[in-house]
Input
Amino acid sequence: MTPSQALPAVLDRIDADLDKSLERLFAFLRIQSVSTDPAYAQHCREAAEFVSKDLASLGFETSVRPTGGHPVVVGKAPNGSGPRVLFYGHYDVQPVDPLDLWDAPPFEPRITTLPDGRKIIVARGACDDKGQVMTFIEACRAFKAVTGKLPLPITMMIEGEEECGSNHLFGFVKDNAAELRQDLALVCDTSMWDPATPLITTSLRGLVYEEVRLTCADRDLHSGIFGGAAQNPLRVLSKILAGLHDDNGRVTLPGFYDGIRELPADIKQDLAGLNLTAEDFLAPVGLKAPAGEKDRMLIEQIATRPTAEINGIIGGYTGEGAKTVIPSHAMAKVSFRLVGGQHPDKIREAFRAFVRSRLPVDCKVEFASFGTAPAVEVPFDSPALAKARAALAAEWGRKALTVGEGGSIPIVADFKNVLGMDTIMVGFALDDDRVHSPNEKYDLTSFHKGTRSWARILAAMAE
Amino acid sequence: MTPSQALPAVLDRIDADLDKSLERLFAFLRIQSVSTDPAYAQHCREAAEFVSKDLASLGFETSVRPTGGHPVVVGKAPNGSGPRVLFYGHYDVQPVDPLDLWDAPPFEPRITTLPDGRKIIVARGACDDKGQVMTFIEACRAFKAVTGKLPLPITMMIEGEEECGSNHLFGFVKDNAAELRQDLALVCDTSMWDPATPLITTSLRGLVYEEVRLTCADRDLHSGIFGGAAQNPLRVLSKILAGLHDDNGRVTLPGFYDGIRELPADIKQDLAGLNLTAEDFLAPVGLKAPAGEKDRMLIEQIATRPTAEINGIIGGYTGEGAKTVIPSHAMAKVSFRLVGGQHPDKIREAFRAFVRSRLPVDCKVEFASFGTAPAVEVPFDSPALAKARAALAAEWGRKALTVGEGGSIPIVADFKNVLGMDTIMVGFALDDDRVHSPNEKYDLTSFHKGTRSWARILAAMAE
Output
């Protein structure tokens, strides 16, 4: 019996086992695995042991591996044929403060019902990431129960420091590359488009972050004496930064858009169909109009197009009242969100050349780099992506979107750059899940249909 | 005998009396009249009494008038015909720290000789302003000795808070306007062009100082989520500030240059003859090239042309390392140095309109004003100016320059605006006088020929 043939029975098993699967999730949620606070180190270890034991019960060969911080759980189940996948998630959770804003204790999970009738699981970590991780594990469990084995070779890597920067994971992945390198990575730590529409995150923007320091005179000057003749670094800086965008919102760095591929027509049409409006996306933060490239949809501006942003400027007198100073120094922090095809090093050099070419006599510049990371993209013609989309569509009765995410998930970039794997990011979080906030929740539907979704995805990939 | 007829004898008397005039100056310099430090209040009072007593000995009707701070000495000698003048100076001095950098105690005045042979008077206040004030008083004393009276009606106003902001003087001038209003004001608190070239300061630039606060989103945003779509106030601010100057260094505010008169050709030629170079003026602060209006001489850029300066900018993340924030707010401080013909209120409104007209949707602005002051100018056709120039030329054997000063002297603006008087600013300070610093000095030549200069100016004005 192939995994596809077994799928109907696996899905029935998931339905029948829902109450017990919730009990298992609740046991996981009761562990206070707050990773940022050293006082909770023992709870983090307990969560790692919980995951390890659970995976062992499914036939994984597990180990709780030490790092410089909290341990990483690795589970290996090389059985079966088909592509080998690495599943990544994290067992650690955010701190719970402010505790008084919780309606019930954060580590006492419970099911409640929203006014609109949705049933929800409420607890710290209900969504991020314990609930999401368990959708995958429960799908594995159902396969094991129905077929006696997992549907394809799976390696699990569940870390305990995602909420405090994954500091030790990068080295861990590098040190264990041979063992962790599979054909494909799967991650369950992202969101749906809305409660009815599944979504696969197919790209993450990269980043170049630069600090620019300009110096003109060798001291601060009085504008009554030098005003009119002395070069002012704030004037130079304004001029340079003002030149970063043209009137159509395009970034003006030479070669900035080189190598960027247009989205396939059907994907672009899907995005257009979402009709993401400024009213939906910007109004909640007090804004009205998209400020990016004028010929791009809002969804493109935030997800699939590169940007240049001024993150900070300081120089001269910024206290109360007046001081007629012409400062010696001025500083800006400038960052670029990158998409596929852009080379971080080239963008950084283009930016530095852009600044240097605009420096007048009497203005010196120093740069500092605070990070360069390429974008991550799943090719739209990836067979795994096509299978995941079809599987999600079958479960949710609606086409699965493929959307880029505007920010970075550094470990996914490492999967590509260190391990050479693409990552399919599927998640069932919703915008109202209050992730990182009091009363974090996960819809029961996300948990239940999320589990069924992974069963379908695994069956499809095993083909 | 007219003052002009008496002048040769008056000048002889000044020469003959030099030693005694130095003794009087030294007595004045020994008084520790540091105005910023309340511990020296009694010394300030003592200095006021010293001046009052000395003026009384010359026939002035004197009074030491209380203010909210240190007293103002007023002396009135309405005798004689001719234009009525108000002489302004100050008896207070700067603090002396760091004391260990003085070669001798700062309140023990002495004569020393520089390596180039110049004899100098060294003490705190030797130049600023006790030495300069005494050049005027000694000229008056010589007239009194030779002719038995002062050469024209003179009112003296010697204050004690110049070094700490003249806070109480503005109200004092307003409250005593009828008494202080004369035909012309004379001030001895400025510099020569160089040790051989006398200078009359004929204009002081005015000021408009604005703070601009921009707000876009109602909170700081994450550039991974909103980058590309959310308006960034630092980008808006850079664009606006970059637009304040054109490529030729001219300020672009509509109407900014309206009403400005060109310097008379002969005055401009005098300035050109000075050949003030970037090497002279900018190299000492580490700069090479004048950054102002390209078609203007350096001396014009700093003295007689208006400017726009960015005095400060702050917004977003300015700490160590990286933060991918799109800030909600950005702030800049911008000031304009004004020259004759420009109206501060119009410039302020032009600036605000300039900013408002460049605001995109989703960007709000608030302004704060930290001062508006018009420029002060002595008309080049003023008969008093012509007389002072001729008198200085006669004394120094060289044409007296008329140059504008780049900064403001607020009380001189008040003389014009509150009392309706022009001010002739003549001073004998030199660039190496170390004013406000340890080992402050005044050239013996400045003191001696300065006194002779005032005798000549007073004689000329009495005609």
Summary: The longest strand of chain A covers residues 206-215. Residues 3-204+376-462 of chain A form a domain with the Aminopeptidase fold (CATH 3.40.630.10). The mean pLDDT of chain A is 95. The first helix of chain A runs from residue 3 to 16.
